[in-house]
From TrEMBL, chain A:
One function term, GO molecular function aspect: electron transfer activity
Organism, scientific name: Floccifex porci
Domain Electron transfer flavoprotein alpha/beta-subunit N-terminal positions: 22-214
Family matches, as PANTHER family: ELECTRON TRANSFER FLAVOPROTEIN BETA-SUBUNIT, PROTEIN FIXA
Name this polypeptide is given: Electron transfer flavoprotein small subunit
Higher taxonomy: Bacteria, Bacillati, Bacillota, Erysipelotrichia, Erysipelotrichales
From TrEMBL, chain B:
Acyl-CoA oxidase/dehydrogenase middle domain location: 122-222
Transmembrane segments: none
Keyword Oxidoreductase included in the entry's annotation: yes
Organism: Floccifex porci
Residue ranges of domain Acyl-CoA dehydrogenase/oxidase N-terminal in the record: 7-118
UniProt-listed SUPFAM superfamilies: Acyl-CoA dehydrogenase C-terminal domain-like, Acyl-CoA dehydrogenase NM domain-like
Name by which UniProt lists this protein: Acyl-CoA dehydrogenase
Keywords: FAD, Flavoprotein, Oxidoreductase
Record-linked Pfam families: Acyl-CoA_dh_1, Acyl-CoA_dh_M, Acyl-CoA_dh_N
TrEMBL record, chain C:
Entries under Pfam families matching the protein: ETF (PF01012), ETF_alpha (PF00766)
Keywords, sorted A to Z: Electron transport, FAD, Flavoprotein, Transport
Binding residues annotated for FAD, in chain numbering: 247, 275-276, 289-293, 306-313, 327
Protein name per the record: Electron transfer flavoprotein subunit alpha/FixB family protein
Lineage, uppermost ranks: Bacteria, Bacillati, Bacillota, Erysipelotrichia, Erysipelotrichales
Record-annotated Electron transfer flavoprotein alpha/beta-subunit N-terminal domain positions: 10-223
GO MF annotation list: electron transfer activity; flavin adenine dinucleotide binding
Cofactor: FAD
GO BP: fatty acid beta-oxidation using acyl-CoA dehydrogenase
UniProt family annotation: Belongs to the ETF alpha-subunit/FixB family.
């Protein structure tokens, strides 16, 4: 039995975000982190390992610098890590990305009891599309927005968040689950984990390793092949600054303005 | 001296920082105000392999190194001095002497449980009449054939209220030197909390590190198995002094952490606090104070890290001693902690004197580092003794 | 260039839960009428469920010309497998040019799955849609820093231009899907304006009930239960008044939240929102979160208490009609989007403000 976890290294958009003059994100100047929802996915997989002793495999698609993040996954408790990386994959949209990752997962192999865990969405793109699209390509049932996961024999019972409540869904393995932050508290890297993670070999799957996989359509990968393209990207203008109120009677000034504007 | 952190050390430092911010800092005020021993933090540290950081995996340790251990004490102490000393006393004063002096059986019995954090460790040397003058011991251990019988008491024992295993120093007889002068023969023992005749007294009420459990140990006809003599009979004083050499590096790291933590708080505060229409960071007095404190903290840091690297050499099998390095590190780091926390509090002004801000706690926590595991005066004796021999 | 001539009409997937249409459906149908008029085609609602045909008039009242209804007991509650199968079958049969899906937790489960199966692109969480380049350029003039007058545009372009925030709202990206059809986008709830309900149009609706195949074997998941949240839900999207709290309440979290609620009450029955820092810290649950990863709101009055105004937050509230910010730090970016700003300690200013508003209301 395996738990396969998809993780992404993302720029930390909660901190200072640098945008280049041409409207593109200046990734080089920003700190990178493991996508927060993906850490919840990793923790879900590690808990499955705690309960069943299953193997945990972390998978990421990205540049070679994502290797450090995969080592951190091992330091947290993952058994293996696979990096899908190749120039040909660069610029892929979610459609293209999901077929590449699905092909990579195919290489790892999805057994009858296996579970693929993904984060709900990545904080750079915020699309929440790659998880379900991997499930579609692999022909796996999916449950998204998982806030609780319980193992019940060969099935999982998942509490799936809705805006106005939740659904309890029973799903048979193999399946794909996308996890929200609320699912759990990700564990820290452990000291022994940190001191052994650099000894593990990170398996790399490049374009030649995947190109013959039946899931790969050579004309829909990478920047050129992606079905969607960026037509324009731009920065929103800052709204003009308003009025700053000052003095001992600011509360009175504001109440007067609101009354005048019939807002109260 | 190469202070470049390895990639493992960088990553482990990052983990400690996240852990300290998220798990340790939120409890620090309660630990101080309620004299609360943070059991849950100890359990969390145990899960992460932090209770046996630099011991090899074969004995249950994390397989890291001394500097990674020192950084752990440092990072915890940045936000909570109590948590720092719990870790230091357990590792340096209990697990370390067993690792360094224990028989294979003793190591196999105690180290895995100490390193996993299932057991917490402590060290009993100080007595009411034997502080800096460690030769003034009164606790006795009598050889009763198949066991030892211990009688006496120890005071100011860190972790005592929660520890499961204690290293106890006791008199096992008298020795006569070549000139016919008699002196006490001192030995070390591994004593478990539930040995018959062993009890722990009430915790002390302290000025700082208030959550650290500091109690008296009482031994009344305490029966200790024969095989629990640690090291050779009659070598207990040397064992205690060597243990304190390691312990002092831990306390130096604690002092360093407290100073760094106070500086971090102060830097944030002076940017926010406004007087005379501008942030007090804009005043040159603030800038110069910060600059000097930072330089002193860095100086202390280099001494602490240097001592850690020297101990690492010993761990790796080199025949080196690090008494002087440890004494220098502790002397300077503890003075820096007291000095920096006092000056930081001054920059906070009246707010710093209130318990709304952590700076007065840090100032109180800092003071003990100049006292325990050898006062600053003892450190100077160690250093000057080496200079003038 | 592929031949798309057989792809026609703008479709809206109309999500129902327990037989009730979602507000987002009406926003999307209203927006679809704008796109359909630019394309010169019809707006078609797609409704899946069990015994839901009666909702078709409501959909039409907001602008749908036709409603395709697929009814089956297997479609009563949402399941990815059943809905994806039927939706894909309908798209393959009718070939819409554009398909809009609300970016709800259900829409965002369904849309990627069907886009992958239909072999087409998908844009997530769009906040602005255009067909005509002219309208798009005007939008850019208003909402971007692009010098549109010195930029070349293809005025004949008929692709759907789907604009969405990315990187936590720091960047906006316009996405197109030129090589495949349909062009699919999920659309952020609360952003598109709902049109006025047109009863005549509602009555004139044409309901189409095509045959489709669906069996229990198609569904790999089982819905065990559906629970409504026990607590009264925070309806940020529909609120006229929102008082949000940020990290600045850290000194006394309980009091900070209580003050925000009291202020919201005196302003006229508002609700309490929160920045991500607050929900991350667990001071309020995620339902309160306003911003890029939370809700997008445009109330009449938005008060930000102790919120620094990271773009992640402002992305979700900057279109509020009147923004009031109270923050200790005069350089906080929140003041850059505020209509009225007060530099001060919220714990001091808010109680005064509550009193003054009470007085002003009496006067």
């Amino acid at each position: 039995m395996k738990a396969i976890v998809c993780v992404k290294q993302v720029p930390d958009t909660s901190g200072k975000v640098a945008v280049k003059e041409n409207g593109q994100l200046d990734r080089a100047s920003m700190a990178t982190i493991t996508n927060p929802d993906d850490l919840a996915a990793l923790e879900a997989a590690l808990r499955l390992k705690d309960a069943t002793g299953c193997e945990v495999v972390a998978v990421s698609m990205g540049p070679f610098t994502a290797e450090s993040m995969l080592r951190e996954c091992i330091a947290r408790g993952a058994d293996r890590a696979v990096l899908i990386s190749g120039r040909e994959f660069g610029g892929s949209d979610t459609f293209a990305t999901s077929q590449i990752i699905a092909a990579g997962i195919n290489k790892i192999g999805v057994g009858p009891e296996d579970v693929v865990f993904c984060g709900r969405q990545a904080i750079d793109g915020d699309t929440a599309q790659v998880g379900p699209q991997i499930a579609e390509k692999l022909g796996l049932p999916q449950v998204t927005y998982a806030a609780e996961i319980e193992k019940d024999g060969n099935s999982l019972i998942v509490k799936r968040l809705l805006e106005d409540g939740y659904m309890k869904i029973k799903v048979q393995t193999p399946c794909l689950i996308t996890c929200v932050k609320e699912l759990n508290e990700p564990r820290y890297m452990s000291v022994p984990g940190i001191f052994s993670c650099f000894d593990s070999e990170i398996e790399v799957l490049d374009y030649p390793a995947l190109q013959d996989d039946p899931l790969i359509e050579v004309d829909t990968i990478g920047l050129k092949g992606s079905p969607t393209n960026v037509f324009k990207s731009f920065t929103p203008p800052q709204k003009g600054a308003g009025t700053m109120l000052a003095g001992d009677d600011v509360a009175n000034q504001l109440a007067t303005i609101l009354a005048k504007k019939h807002l109260i | 001296m190469d202070f470049t952190l390895s990639k493992q050390q960088k990553l482990v430092q990052q983990m400690y920082q996240e852990f300290a911010q998220n798990e340790v800092k939120p409890l620090a005020k309660k630990v101080d105000a309620e004299e609360y021993f943070p059991k849950e933090t100890v359990e969390k540290m145990a899960k992460l392999g932090m209770m046996g950081i630099y011991f090899p995996k074969e004995v249950g340790g994390a397989g890291a190194d001394v500097l990674s251990y020192v950084m752990a004490v440092e990072e915890m102490s940045k936000v909570c001095g109590t948590t720092g000393v719990i870790l230091s006393a357990h590792t340096s004063l209990c697990a370390a002497p067993i690792y360094e002096n224990g028989t294979p059986e003793q190591k196999a019995k105690y180290l895995p449980k100490l390193c996993s954090g299932e057991w917490l460790g402590a060290f009993g040397l100080t007595e009411p009449g034997a502080g800096t003058d460690a030769q003034g011991q009164q606790t006795t251990a009598v050889d009763c054939g198949d066991h030892w019988l211990l009688n006496g008491s120890k005071i100011f024992i860190t972790n005592a209220g929660y520890a499961d295993v204690f290293i106890i120093i006791a008199i096992t007889g008298t020795v006569t030197d070549k000139r016919g002068r008699k002196s006490k023969e001192i030995s070390a023992f591994i004593v478990e909390r539930n040995f018959p005749g062993f009890s722990v007294g009430k915790p002390e009420e302290k000025m700082g590190i208030r959550g650290s459990s500091t109690c008296e140990l009482i031994m009344e006809d305490c029966i200790v198995p024969k095989e629990n003599l640690l090291g050779k009979k009659g070598r207990g004083f040397q064992l205690a002094m060597a243990t304190l050499d390691g312990g002092r590096i831990g306390i130096a790291a604690q002092a360093l952490g407290i100073a760094e933590g106070a500086l971090d708080e102060t830097i944030a505060y002076v940017k926010e606090r406004k007087q005379f229409g501008r942030s007090i960071a804009a005043f040159q007095n603030t800038q110069f104070e910060l600059a000097e404190m930072k330089a002193r903290v860095d100086a202390a840091k280099y001494l602490v890290y240097k001592a850690a690297l020297k101990k690492q050499e010993a761990m790796d099998g080199a025949k080196v001693r690090y008494s002087v390095e440890a004494a220098e590190a502790k002397l300077i780091a503890s003075r820096t902690a007291s000095d920096v926390t006092r000056r930081c509090l001054q920059l906070f002004g009246g707010y710093g004197y209130t318990r709304d801000y952590p700076i007065e706690r840090m100032m109180r926590d800092a003071k003990i580092t100049e006292i325990y595991e050898g006062t600053s005066e003892v450190q100077m004796m160690v250093i000057s003794g080496a200079l003038l021999k | 260039m592929a031949d798309f001539s057989e792809y026609k009409n703008v479709w809206v997937f109309c999500e129902q839960r327990q037989g009730e249409l979602q507000t987002t459906d009406f926003e999307l149908v209203s927006e679809a009428t704008k796109l359909a008029s630019e394309l010169g085609c019809k707006v078609v609602g797609l409704l899946l469920g069990d015994n839901v045909k009666g909702l078709a008039n409501e959909i039409a009242g907001y602008g749908a010309d036709e409603v395709v209804v697929c009814e089956s007991p297997l479609l009563k509650d949402y399941t990815t497998d059943a809905y994806a199968k039927v939706l894909c079958d309908m798209v393959n049969e009718f070939k819409p040019e554009v398909l809009l899906i609300g970016a709800t937790n259900i829409g965002r489960d369904l849309a990627p799955r069907i886009a992958a199966r239909l072999h087409t692109g998908l844009t997530a969480d769009a906040t602005h849609l255009d067909i005509d380049t002219k309208g798009y350029v005007e939008y850019l003039r208003e909402s971007s820093t692009i010098d549109v007058d010195n930029t070349t545009f293809d005025w004949e372009d008929r692709n759907l231009k789907m604009t969405r925030p990315a990187f936590g709202g720091h960047l906006m990206a316009t996405i197109i899907c030129p090589r495949f059809r349909p062009q699919i986008s999920t659309v952020r709830p609360g952003v598109m304006k709902k049109a006025a309900f047109d009863s005549a149009k509602a009555q004139a609706v044409k309901v189409i009930e095509p045959a489709f195949e669906l069996s229990a074997d198609d569904i790999k998941t089982e819905v065990l239960s559906i629970e409504k949240a026990a607590n009264k839900l925070v309806d940020l999207i529909g609120a006229d008044i929102i008082v949000s709290v940020g990290r600045g309440i850290g000194k006394d979290v309980e009091k900070g939240i209580a003050l925000a609620q009291e202020l919201a009450d005196v302003l006229g029955g508002g609700v309490v929102g929160a920045s991500r820092a607050v929900t991350d810290a667990g001071w309020l649950d995620a339902a309160h979160q306003v911003g890029q990863t939370g809700k997008t709101v445009h109330p009449k009055i938005y008060v930000a208490l102790g919120i620094s105004g990271a773009i992640q937050h402002t992305a979700g509230m900057q279109d509020s009609e009147c923004i009031i910010a109270i923050n200790k730090n005069e350089t906080a970016p929140i003041f850059g989007v505020a209509d009225y700003g007060i530099v001060g300690d919220l714990f001091k200013v808010v109680p005064q403000l509550i009193e003054e508003i009470k007085k002003a209301k009496v006067a």
